[in-house]
Amino acid sequence: MADARTTRIFAIANQKGGVAKTTTAINLAATLALEGYQVLVVDCDPQANASSGLGISRQGVEISTYDVLLGEASASEAIQKTRVSGLRILPSSRGLIGANIELINMEGREYRLKVALESVEAEFDFILMDCPPALDLLTLNALVATEYVLVPMQAEYFALEGITDLLNTIERIQAAFNPRLKVEGVVLTMYDERTNLAQQVTDNLRGYFGEDLYRTVIPRNIRLAEAPSHGLPVLLYDPRSRGAEAYRALGKELLKRMGLESQAGNAKNASHAKSVMGSEESADKDDKGNPGPAGKVRFWPYG
C-alpha cells in the first residue's frame, strides 16, 4: 500500500428499517480489515447497534458521535478499537437521538460530520457509516460526508418502493450539497433463493441497476443474527457459516470494483492474516484501558 492513502468513504443507507444495514456495515468492515486495510465504522444511528455489534457497550461510551457532531469532542477522542485488528469504531449513544433537534439551528449543520472526519480521514483506507433508517439530519450528514452510497435491501416488493425515495433524496443532495455523491451499489440481503418473489425482484433490480447491483447476495443465516449478541462480526463468531462466506465474498467484490487487491499477504499487514488482535497486550485492553477479549482469536481462512 502506498504511503499516500486514498480514503474511500461509504454510507450504508436505506430509509427502510430491517434490511441489514448494520449487519452489512459491521461485517463488510471486518472483512476489509481482515484483507489488510485500515477501516473505521462511524455509528450514526441512535440505536447504537453497530457499536454493540462490535463489542462496545452503550453504557461504557463516554464520547460518541453525538459529541463529535455537536463539536464537543474531536473524532480522534471518540474512536475506539474493536476486536478486529485494523478495525476501529466511532461509537454512538442514545443521546444521538437529540442531535436531529439540536443541529437544526447550528451553522453548517449538514457538514458537521464531514468536517469532523477530515481530521482522521488520512488514517484509514475505508470509512463506513452506518445510517439510521430515516432520511433525517443524521443521514444527511453522512451523505454529505461521503462519495459512495451502498444500499442494502431485501428482495421484496416494499423494498422496491422504498428505494425510489432514497434515490430521489440522493439526487437532491447531489444538487444542493455534494455533487460527488453516487450510488456505488445495491446489495441484496436476507435473501431466500427458494422463493419466486426473490428471483423476480432480483431480475427487476438487475434490469434497473445493471452492474450497480452486486453479484454477491447475503442469505438469511442464523449465525448472522446471533453474532451481534456476542459483540462480534460473524467472521469471528462463526467464520465457516454461510453468512461469513457471503460477507467475505462481498468484501472481495467491493475491492475488485474499487480496483484494489487484498493486502493481507503483505508482510506489513501480516498481523491481519494471523489474528484479530495485533498482540497479546492489545487483546487485553483497548485504547481507553477497558478489558478486551481474552487472548487472540484465530479464524479461518485468515489464520
Structural features, described:
It is a single chain. This protein has 303 residues and is α/β, with parallel strands linked by helices. It has a single domain (10-267), classed as P-loop containing nucleotide triphosphate hydrolases (Rossmann fold), CATH 3.40.50.300. Helix content is 39%, strand content 12%. The protein contains 14 helices and seven strands. It has helices at 21-34, 49-53, 65-69, 75-78, 99-102, 112-118, 137-145, 157-176, 196-209, 222-226, 234-237, 242-257, 270-274, 280-284; strands spanning 8-12, 39-43, 80-81, 87-90, 126-130, 148-154, 182-189. It has a seven-stranded mixed sheet with strand order 3-4-2-5-1-6-7, sandwiched between helices. Strand 6 (148-154), helix 8 (157-176) and strand 7 form a beta-alpha-beta unit. Helix 1 crosses helix 12 and helix 6 (112-118) crosses helix 7. The radius of gyration is 18 Å and the shape is globular. The two termini are 21 Å apart. Residues 267-303 have low confidence and may be disordered.
